[in-house]
What does this fold into?
Amino acid sequence: MSGVIEVQHPLIDCHLTRLRDARTPSDEFRNLIRRLATLLAYEATQDLVVEKTQVTTPLTTTDGSRLAERIGLVPILRAGLGMIDPVLDLIPSAEVWHLGLYRDEATAEPVEYYSKLPPGRPVDVALILDPMLATGGSVTAALETLKRWGVRRVKMLSVLAAQEGIDNVSRAFPDSQIYVCRIDPILNDSKFIVPGLGDAGDRIFNTPR
Ligand SMILES: O=P(O)(O)OC[C@H]1O[C@H](OP(=O)(O)OP(=O)(O)O)[C@H](O)[C@@H]1O
Ligand SMILES: O=c1cc[nH]c(=O)[nH]1
Ligand SMILES: [Mg+2]
It folds into this structure.
């Protein structure tokens, strides 16, 4: 499947409302990000490949399944760190490969400051984790890095996106799969999502500026 999937769920609507609220404190903000990441990951992992196995219960032996592919979680620092644990809870065998990117405040262009992907042996499926997709510059940089590593299937999991950023990523990577909780209509002059939720990294890590 390729394209943009805006995941529909009443719990997403409720959690997103609290997440947007400027009065929501950091500890609750982090919990909301976790819940939304779980709901996104449930949707984004529907097509993971499993193989048959046998399992012995206390009573008998029966058919079962186990993952048949290597899954990599690729959180974009900092804000993506808030999404790792809930997705790892769902996929305990996943590898975690961090990418350090920040947006230059003047240009809104992504600047890479950490990447340690090993040469060769790419994962089969990469899940990029970042709660915010604004201009799309950061995820485009991440997609380019993962393509150079040789990853064939990449899914982006983002809580909130701007339509402009979605359009930019879809143009640069027509085969991209983007799972979002909500697409907001506007980027302001500082390239922040409106209505949005502010700076996700600062709200997760309680670093007001
Ligand atoms: O789509 P874009 O226009 O590239 O914007 C989205 C990026 O901006 C934010 O990171 P930020 O630069 O604030 O870094 P931080 O997570 O360290 O706060 C966010 O977490 C994304 O990585
Ligand atoms: O609105 C925005 C845009 C980029 N990064 C954020 O954290 N928020
Ligand atoms: Mg930030």
Remarks:
- The chain has six helices and 13 strands.
